[in-house]
Amino acid sequence: MTWAHLEVHFGEALAVNHKAWVVGDATLPGDSVLHAFLEHKAQIKDLGTLGGPNSIANSLNERGKVVGYSDTDKPDLLMEGFCSYPTVTASNRTCLPFVRQHGVMTPLPVLGGNNGQAFSVNKRGEVVGVAENNEPDPTCKGSQVLHFKPVLREDGEIEELPTLAGDSDGTVNAINDNGKAVGQTGNCTSSLTQSSGRKAERLTWAPSQDCCSHHLPSTTGIK
To answer: CA dist 203 to 164, 167, 206, Å?
Structure first.
């Protein structure tokens, strides 16, 4: 299927690999829902969702592993609206990170909370992003209720990465093929909006030299 056949009014490309495979998101006819897509040689594949109305593909690697996040069919009883989309209203359904490979979209684990997102994947299949735990966060304002932590996922397992001292929340935005990851930590409001009067710190997490190649214990602020 091509872009013309999809009758798309909005779409965005978010990542490309060396094979010129492109992922992103686009509205479906009617413009009421948004789906993740994979494009190659002008052919578009709708990647679907985890049961809810919307999804986004943020990254892919050379093996064709695609990661992103999607609404599910399960209501979010806290009504956080954790999934955010550029042109459609966030639903009050839980939002889960996913990996899609070989035609199958699989949800990734979170830290005991309801929601999470995946932002980047490297050639080793390490996936980074954010995940909620089940603890209420007193620094949150608005719809967000629970703490959200920077995480790394690999082979179905999830690891919470450290934040700077005094920071309660954070995200990991990207990871390279050597396992170095970057993101930010702060409190709930500063990490989400940057408008709380408290600056969120930009960070790097470097692989441990005396443990596993996927373990990222060191956290350093960037000046």
So the answer is: 9, 12, 10
Count of residues for the chain?
223
Residue type, position 177, single letter:
D
Collect all residues with Cβ–Cβ distance below 8 Å to 213 and sequence separation of at least 6: 124, 179, 207
Q: What is the pLDDT of residue 48?
A: 95
Cα–Cα distance, 23 to 35 (Å, whole number): 11
Rounded to a whole number of angstroms, the distance between the first and last alpha carbons of the chain is: 46
Q: Per residue in 142-170, pLDDT tens?
A: 899 999 999 999 988 999 999 888 889 99
CA distances from 164 to 161, 168, 184, 207 (A): 10, 8, 9, 16
Model-level pTM? 0.86
Q: Which residue type sits at 184?
A: Q
| Paired tokens of 41 | 């040689």
- Whether residue 65 contacts residue 101, with contact meaning beta carbons closer than 8 Å, is answered with yes
Distance between CA 76 and CA 145 in Å, rounded?
11
Return d(Cα 30, Cα 50) in angstroms, integer: 20
CA distance linking residue 223 with residue 212, whole number of Å: 28
